[in-house]
Amino acid sequence: MQFGHLMLCDQREGISSRVRYEQMMEEVRLMDKLGYWSVWFAEHHFDGYALIPDALMACAAAARETHNILLGAGVVVLPFHHPIRVAEQAAMVDCLSGGRLLLGIGRGYQPHEFTGFGQSLDESQARYDQALGVLVRALNDRNFSYDSGGMWRGEQVTAWPKPVQCPMPMWGAAISEASFQRFGELGWPILSFPSSTPPEKLKHQFDLYRETYTQHGHPLENMRIAATMFTFVSKNADEGNLIFERAMGKYFGHLDSLTRSAEAQQRLYDRLPTTARLSGDPHQVVESLREIRNYLGITDVINVTHFAGDLTHEQTLNSIELFSREVIPAFSEDSG
């Protein structure tokens, strides 16, 4: 199993955005030093709970601060971007990082972000589908023309620079059954978000992905299922759980306010997560993660410790280090 971290870079009271970026990079450098497999940067807009409006720009900055850790755009929200520009930027980041980019893409889900860009959730699927086709061609083809059928059109395009990795490793954010099937057909690794789905439904979706992936003949050794986990590890179990519960209440209460105008099935942030929680002391976290891994068959864990500004920078650093030193070694038999 591989271990990574998802950065939101949440705004914290009394701390400037500039300082928060410096703190984020200190966390990234620590993960690189400790041997984490990946760090991901989440694109969000128009709200201080996340200060990364451009995931690829964050990856570029981290590329110059690190040496080994893989850098994940987690994810580029395609409806907000021209797909040719995404291809160009991704290739540039891959060059700057020496071939360490993981290009995650998604459709987006927060209504206020679409409103801010003059779009709506209703049209997001069409924008996403059309952009995806153009993006894949831009990363692989030369001197091509494209007409997505409405959104995007261009002629005689060859995107430069060329990435170090060929093909570019692309990951898909999967929430609906259609997306699990889509990425199974494409043979892409998936990024999942267990907190928003009951365990039984999530297991069904993962099984659907695995079945579709296998039916389309993709190499089984390349199948990856990454689960985003809300994580806080402390030497003291009771203290760790108490801090985590308070932070989760604030974080999910805030997200609930951002998604109130979404369709009913997307209003999933009015309760604390169950499947996606890893809190307490290292022993508790190891036992919880083993149960999750054995039930769901995940291959990657992507921790989140930015909870709407509730944890201090020092608490985040301590949790990152404790997880690395006392949780990851318990799963060394299937890391590699």
Number of helices: 10
User: How far apart are the first and last residues' alpha carbons, in Å?
Assistant: 8 Å
Number of strands: 11
| Structural class by helix and strand composition | alpha/beta
**Poorly predicted runs of 5 or more residues:** 261-270
CATH architecture: Alpha-Beta Barrel
Mean pLDDT across every amino acid position: 91
CATH topology: TIM Barrel
Q: What is the CATH homologous superfamily assignment?
A: Luciferase-like domain
Question: How is the biggest beta sheet arranged?
Answer: 8 strands, parallel, barrel
The backbone outline, from C-alpha atoms, is: globular
What would you report as the Rg, rounded to the nearest angstrom? 19 Å
Descriptive notes:
The model is unreliable at 261-270 (pLDDT under 50). The chain has helices spanning 17-34, 55-63, 83-96, 111-116, 124-140, 177-186, 199-215, 237-258, 282-296, 313-326; strands at 2-7, 38-41, 70-77, 101-106, 144-147, 153-157, 170-173, 190-192, 225-233, 277-280, 300-304. With 336 residues, the protein is of the alpha/beta class. The chain has one domain (2-334): TIM Barrel (Alpha-Beta Barrel). It is globular and about 60 Å long. It is built from ten helices and eleven strands.
Helix/strand layout:
Elements: E1 2-7, H1 17-34, E2 38-41, H2 55-63, E3 70-77, H3 83-96, E4 101-106, H4 111-116, H5 124-140, E5 144-147, E6 153-157, E7 170-173, H6 177-186, E8 190-192, H7 199-215, E9 225-233, H8 237-258, E10 277-280, H9 282-296, E11 300-304, H10 313-326
Parallel strand pairs: 1-2, 1-11, 2-3, 3-4, 4-7, 7-8, 8-9, 9-10, 9-11
Antiparallel strand pairs: 5-6
